[in-house]
Amino acid sequence: MAPRPPMGWNSWNSFAGTITEAQALETAAIMRDKLLPSGYDIFTVDIQWYEPEASSYTYNANPIPALDAHGRLVPAPNRFPSAAKGQGFAPLAAKVHAMGLKFGIHVMRGIARHAVKQNLPVLGTAYRARDIADTSSICSWNPDMYGVDMTKPGAQEYYDGLFRLYASWGVDFVKMDDMSRPYDAHAPEIEAAARAIARCGRPMMLSLSPGETPVLRGEHVRRHAQMWRISDDFWDEWAQLEAQFTRLENWTPYRGPGSWPDADMLPMGRLALGERNTRFTPDEQRTLMTLWSIARSPLIMGGDLRHLDDATLALLTNPEVLAVNQRSTGNAPHFLEDGIRAWSAWGEDGKGRYLALFNTGDKPRDVTVPLRTVGMAGPAKLRDLWQRRDLAPVRDSVITHLAAHAGVLFRLDGMG
After folding, report:
1. Per-residue pLDDT for 416 more than 80?
2. Is residue 212 a part of any domain in this protein?
């Protein structure tokens, strides 16, 4: 389902839970024009699309979500008018598909508390919401749902009906939240969602959120999902970016086609309901894109595309950098010295060698990397992928100067 790291846009960083149909269509059109040519093709409506009163990053304590007769969440018609008369997201998805994009939605683990309160019937069964709900299993940060007790009759049928509904809407990508933490407690519902997707009649990528997904559960998660979060929500703070280095290093054994550890969305450009621009410096933004690319994390832009500036667009669409994310192999970290991080990878053809270097310290550093450290012998051609220009060939080592929090990305090609 995901032979290469998924690329796209998600509404959370810029709209919280408030996005409307008009805003979604406006954003999708910009994505089609600006990002789709570079491969960003998954357009995702994040949390609370079923909540008529959603207004910020704070959740309503006692929400009354839009539901169908079987307790399944549906788009709030005051925000998504085309969802009226039982059409759900089908009309919006059709318009997104017509732009050449895939359509994604965010969903929460479990069954709506409001459906349990009303004790609505589970589609295709003799059971009702209270028969399958685990009212002791609740999300610590969102009040919308109860967990589903997968030992109960009707539980799998509930999830099957849920994903058949998404398939009927034309959904291509599901970001399923409150899943990866605590992982073992939620593993039965992870498995249930994967089974439901296999039965729904439509190919659908599954992305699990939030993290930190335990590395020891890597074999299990890669069997059931195409991508999974390795951290809690990632925002534009240097300490959070620095922490992602170790997490991405630790997930190296589980990275590969159909199996992508997810370092979370790219909080760049205009963020937080338009209140501010990213707090990352230009060097930190380049470090972010370099790390996500060399570690082959999914690339999901989070900033408001209606305010997409040229500098951010250039960072997102550099073709030589994106080639590392999409078409490299053997991606792995190297340990050189404190404050310096290094990764290397092979080009997809097995010839060129990619080298990413980072200074996570607060002072400028000169860095020397012997070619043998990354499995090469000199001499070698050297190309700066961010500058998109060739540098002087190197004989034995790559030598570069890095500002604080800065990163570089090179390609080495042997001259022998």
Report:
1. no
2. yes
Give the whole-angstrom CA distance, residue 273 versus residue 276: 8
28: its two tokens: 């999708």
> Do 194 and 49 reside in the same domain of the chain?
yes
Domain shared by 74 and 134, yes or no: yes
- Is the pLDDT assigned to residue 32 strictly greater than 80? yes
pTM value?
0.97
CB atoms within 10 A of CB 75: 26
Q: 391 lies in which domain range?
A: 332-414
Structural domain count, the chain: 2
Neighbour count for residue 131 (Cβ, 10 Å)? 18
Domain boundary (284, 300, 326) is at 326
- Is 2 among the domain residues? no
DSSP H or E run through 160: helix 155-169
293 vs 280: CA distance, rounded Å:
17
Distances (CA, A) of 53 to 17, 27, 56, 147, 370: 10, 21, 10, 23, 58
Describe the strand order of the beta sheet including 111-112 as a list of residue ranges.
111-112, 145-148, 133-138
Query: What is the pLDDT, as a whole number, of residue 90?
Result: 98
Answer for the pair 60, 47: CB distance below 8 angstroms, yes or no: no
Question: Could you write out the DSSP letters of every residue in 170-183?
Answer: T--EEEEES-STTH
Question: Are 11 and 139 in a shared domain?
Answer: yes
Band (306; pLDDT cuts 50, 70, 90): very high
The CA distance from 20 to 31, in Å, is 16
- Closest Cα partner for 384 from 404, 416, 406? 406
| Closest to 23 measured CA to CA, from 43, 51, 4 | 43
Q: Between the CA of residue 221 and those of 119, 190, 207, 259, 329, what are the distances in Å?
A: 32, 8, 10, 9, 21
Rg (CA), the chain: 22
Contacts of 275 (CB under 8 A, 6+ apart): none
Residues 290 and 337 in one domain: no
| pLDDT tens-digit readout, 92-126 | 999 999 999 999 999 999 999 999 999 999 999 99
* Least confident window among 92-106, 283-297, 335-349: 335-349
Question: For the chain, percent helix, then strand, then coil, each to nearest 5?
Answer: 35, 25, 40
Say what the pLDDT of residue 270 is. Answer: 98
